[in-house]
Amino acid sequence: MSTDSFPPGDGEHPPASSTRVRRVACPSCRTEVEWSTDNPFRPFCSKRCKLTDLGAWASGAYRLPVPDDPPGAESDDFSER
Ligand SMILES: [Zn+2]
């Protein structure tokens, strides 16, 4: 058995930066912000966006994005044969 099946070195990943910074889009204004612990307003870009979003939540205008489940996509759980 060869244990060297997986090539060392991740060449598939683009060399973005020395430190892998995770970027997220601000849910409020869609501005890309760095997901760092230094940002207390994450995933928002600023305090203003966070407050705006929270305000929307409080008013009930903001709903959770409910993902549409695939209707019976190969659900073998119920098909007992
Ligand atoms: Zn924002």
Structure commentary:
This protein has a two-stranded antiparallel ribbon. It has a domain at 23-59: Erythroid Transcription Factor GATA-1, Chain A. The protein is built from one helix and two strands; from the N terminus they run ββα. The longest helix has 13 residues, at 47-59. The protein is flat and about 55 Å long. Strand 1 and strand 2 (32-34) form a beta hairpin. By secondary structure, it is α+β, with helices and mostly antiparallel strands. Residues 26, 28-29, 31, 44-46, 49 line the site of zinc ion.
How do you describe this structure in short?
The chain is α+β, with helices and mostly antiparallel strands and 81 residues long.
| Count of beta strands | 2
Please give the count of helices.
Answer: 1
> Which sequence of strands runs across the widest sheet?
1-2
Q: What characteristic shape results from the CA principal axes? A: flat
List descriptors.
81 residues; alpha+beta; Erythroid Transcription Factor GATA-1, Chain A; two-stranded antiparallel sheet; binds zinc ion
Secondary-structure topology with pairs:
Layout: E1 23-25, E2 32-34, H1 47-59
Bound molecules: zinc ion (ZN).
